[in-house]
Design goal:
Layout lengths: L1 H29 L14 E7 L3 E15 L2 E5 L4 E5 L9 E2 L4 E5 L2 H28 L4 H10 L15 H9 L2 H16 L2 E3 L4 E6 L6 E2 L4 E7 L3 E8 L11 E5 L6 E9 L9 E8 L9 E18 L8 E6 L2 E6 L1 E5 L3 E5 L6 E3 L12 E5 L1
Parallel strand pairs: 1-21
Antiparallel strand pairs: 1-20, 2-11, 2-15, 3-10, 4-6, 4-9, 5-8, 6-7, 8-10, 11-14, 12-13, 12-15, 13-14, 15-19, 16-17, 16-20, 18-19
Amino acid sequence: MNLNWRRIVILLTAILFVGGVIGFQLLSKQKTDPPRKPSIPASRLTVSTMEVHHGPASIPIPLQGRLAAYDRVDLFAEVNGLASQGAHPLKEGIRFKDGEILLQLDDREARLALQGQRAALLTSLAQLLPDIKIEFPDRFGDWQSYVEKLDPEKKVAPLPEPTSHREKLFLASRGIQTQYYAIRSAEERLTKYRLIAPFDGVLTAVDVQRGTLIRPGQRIGQFLRLGGYELESSVSISDLGFIRIGQKVTMESEDNGNRYTGIVRRIGDQVDASTQMVPIYIEVGGVGLKEGMFLLGEIVGGITDDVVSLPKDLILNGREIWQIRDSSLVKVPIDVLRTGRTTAVVKGLKEGALVVRDRKPGMIEGQQVNWITE
């Protein structure tokens, strides 16, 4: 009896196991896989490019320097006197036109002394007229006319020219020429009481004030020309062959962003022993320029064949550039011949090659890209 029950239990267990396996297989066949999301292809980076074309290109020669006034005059007094105001107040920043009075010194004493000298010459000639009438009757009319026109308050006119050696000695023995040239010297000295502007300019330094007693040799101030500036820069000896007097230079101020045009006016003859550079001097003019401004410039130098001119910011590490080959980004080594402020002249690129113009984040070598040629 017990044996039969064991057999029955074992048989039922086997039937249940087989039924469970068959049921699991049937259920697993009826189970459906969840729907898969369609794969979205990654978008390509789009860059702008330029096509390489070999040909002649100008070599840019960079320059830099500070502006200095082309004409600068230190003002000094040649005579003594009390300072008074000229055409405008004697203050820094005041502008004067060519010929205007910068400073007037008190000249009353010198003017009166000069008038006394003229009056003394008039007296001497008046006393000499009777002798001239006797000794040189044919010259009496000229000397009489001269005496009649001589005015102590007016500039003395040139003496009548002697017509003979005897007349010349006669005048010399009476001291007429001595008096005349002393008056001419005093007249010239009288002009020095007025300090005249030599050109249109501005006062940049003033060392005296109105009412100051000025002495000979005393510094009055400094005066510089408006609108005329000069920039001193330096170039290497190798670049000197590409520069000539009269050549145009493009200049720019980083402070105000303005652009200016300059002209090479002078080229130095001496080489700086420490830098092996040669000074050049560039005349610059334009609105907004001030003395002491720092300018950056560039001279378009000589022409080189079979090269490519590229924007300077496209060059990587000073020797490579991004290029597209088979729709992929690659770095190509190049030979940089010359770099200017904004451009570079290079060799090593094949004709028709596509050079990437813009540098975007995430660019890696071998990356597939789309491009637009400009």
